[in-house]
Every structure is written in structure tokens, then in C-alpha cells.
Design a protein that fits this description.
seven-stranded mixed beta sheet, alpha+beta, 318 residues, Double-stranded beta-helix, four-stranded antiparallel beta sheet
């Protein structure tokens, strides 16, 4: 392994994965909840399609997240970026040939989604490994990171309570919607509310409340990961060192394999050892369901060779 690299590979830690065999047997949901509260990732194998929704709902109910589970599935279908599959599940991110999905926690600091789940229907490819990375809440890298958020621009009109409520939901405005002194303006954002001027900005990362752990933590939101050029290179190095990066015979630039390439707009200078403790790598098999804390565990997927099988995994969030 090349020890001269700027980004050391995040160590694999299989002890953080709890594996259960379902095979038609009843699942003790209280045990699942206990493991989640200890920040383990849970893998339940051989779960039939007709049972997986019930397991997910029971876990969400134990965490007080059923309303969020239902809402996220409905919102994904309404917004059109995913297709709904059943009551709670949705399709995963679309990608082109040879594209991988870099690590991120689903959503942003506004939606604050707590629980992530993935269910495998088929994964017969020569790749498509799921890579989960555990956040190091005490790492120094968080100070360098920024999240892309929307603020009300200086000089914008004052909003009525109804307009403010509508704008908050539409544009994910935080309670502090005015521009803060240390925030860098990226550019204007279109508004459908007459007289309301918005700007996208780079905002400092702030801790958010984990309902599962009962404490405030940093989360590596997709609104922070996909905008950062420096979050791409360590992931590519990790894939190469673990021999998980598939390349076409005629070559392909890394940015063309990056599913988020068109959204990267700045460089934070971050390194993986500044925000992650460890990782879990697992190639999902049909009937596998993974449950994890969406705030403290990011998810990512390696690429695969086109024509070498099919990968059909659905996701749910709450």
C-alpha cells in the first residue's frame, strides 16, 4: 500500500456490523433498537420482500420515526428524483456506466433524517459493494467543511407568516434564515415568491440532534459531500487500495465516474481521517436489509462493469 498518500485508507472494522439470519424467523425489534442506540450497523439476511416493510416500520416506530418514514417516501415520489417502491421504499440514485456513489448521509441539516435502510432485491454485478463509513465526531476535519444551504438575501422583502412558512418548506430555510457573517455567497437562487430574494451560501457545519443516540453529532450531509472536490479523491484512493474500482478498457477520467461530478464547486482541504473512524464493506445479497443511523454512518457504493449482471437495491429514510 502506498503510505505517501495524503488520505490514509479508513480502516475496516467488521465488529461494528451485527449480522442476523432471518429466514422466516421472527425478529426481536427491541434488540435491533438496542444495537442502533449503540451505533452498530445491522444486517438482517434472508428477509422475504413481504416481511421487510414490517421490520422497517417496527424499527421506525420504536424510534418515533413512523411519520418521517411515510413522509420521506411520499416526498421522493412527489419530487420525482426517485421512484416509490411499495409503501416505504424508493429507488436509489441513478447513475451512468462505471459511476460510483461517494459517501454521504442522506438529506441535509434541515430535513435531519435519522434512519437509513437498504434492501437488496438483486446484486449479480462484478461490483456494487456497499461501503459504510462511521463519523468521528471529535475529528478536526469538520472545521474545514461547509454545507450548501439557502438563505434570504440582504434587501429581500419582509415575509408574512404564511409566506415564511411556505418558503421555509420549499427552500429548506433554517430558523436563522438571514445571511451570517462567516458565510460565503455562491450565487442567487430562484424564488417563486414575489419579492423574495434568495442566495445559496457555504455555511459552517453544525451539530444536529441524533434521536437514536440522544446527543448532538456532526453528520456528513450530501449537501456537504457532493459539493466538495476534496471529498472525491480520498474515496477513489480507498476504492483503488481495496481493488473495488472498475475501469473501462479504454480508460475514463475519475470525474466521469463520479455520480456527483456536476455539483462539486469548491475544495475544503478535508481528509477522511479527519472525519471518519472506520468503515464496513459488504456486497449486498438478495434478501439483505441494512439498518443504520443516517447521521453517524454514511453510505456509498462502488461501481461495476456494464453488462456484468444487475443491481437492484431500494432505500428508505426516516
Amino acid at each position: 500500500m502506498n503510505t505517501d498518500k495524503r488520505n490514509p485508507v479508513v480502516p475496516e472494522d467488521p465488529t461494528r456490523l451485527i449480522t442476523l439470519e432471518s429466514d422466516g424467523a421472527a425478529i426481536d425489534v427491541n434488540r435491533l433498537l438496542d444495537w442502533l442506540r449503540q451505533d452498530f450497523v445491522i444486517l438482517v439476511r434472508k428477509v422475504a420482500p413481504e416481511r421487510v416493510g414490517g421490520i422497517l416500520r417496527s424499527v421506525a416506530a420504536g424510534l418515533g420515526l413512523v411519520e418521517s418514514l411515510e413522509l420521506q417516501a411520499a416526498c421522493a415520489e412527489f419530487l420525482g428524483h426517485r421512484q416509490r417502491v411499495g409503501e416505504y421504499w424508493m429507488t436509489v440514485n441513478k447513475r451512468d456506466n462505471y459511476q460510483f456513489i461517494p459517501p454521504h448521509s442522506e438529506g441535509d441539516s434541515f430535513t435531519n433524517m435519522q434512519l437509513a435502510a437498504f434492501y437488496c432485491i438483486e446484486n449479480s454485478t462484478d461490483g456494487g459493494e456497499t461501503i459504510l463509513m462511521n463519523v468521528d465526531d471529535s475529528g478536526e476535519g469538520w472545521q474545514a467543511l461547509r454545507e450548501k444551504v439557502t438563505r434570504i438575501a440582504p434587501g429581500s422583502k419582509s415575509l408574512t407568516p404564511g409566506e415564511l412558512k411556505r418558503a421555509t418548506g420549499m427552500y429548506h430555510l433554517h430558523s436563522t434564515s438571514a445571511l451570517l457573517p462567516d458565510e460565503r455567497i455562491l450565487g442567487p437562487r430562484q424564488s417563486t415568491i414575489a419579492g423574495l430574494r434568495l442566495v445559496d451560501v457555504l455555511a459552517r457545519m453544525r451539530k444536529t440532534r441524533s434521536a437514536i443516540l440522544g446527543k448532538d453529532v456532526y453528520a456528513y450531509w450530501q449537501t456537504a459531500s457532493i459539493i466538495d472536490l476534496d471529498s472525491l479523491h480520498p474515496f477513489v484512493e480507498l476504492l483503488e487500495d481495496c481493488e473495488l474500482l472498475r475501469k473501462p478498457p479504454n480508460g475514463l477520467e475519475v470525474r466521469e465516474m463520479d455520480n456527483a461530478a456536476g455539483q462539486r464547486i469548491w475544495s475544503s482541504g478535508m481528509t477522511y481521517d479527519g472525519i471518519f473512524r472506520c468503515r464496513i464493506t459488504h456486497k449486498l445479497q438478495p434478501g439483505d436489509v441494512v439498518l443504520q443511523n443516517n447521521l453517524t454512518w454514511t453510505h456509498a457504493v462502488s461501481n461495476w462493469t456494464p453488462g456484468r449482471g444487475f443491481r437492484n437495491v431500494v432505500a428508505a429514510f426516516a
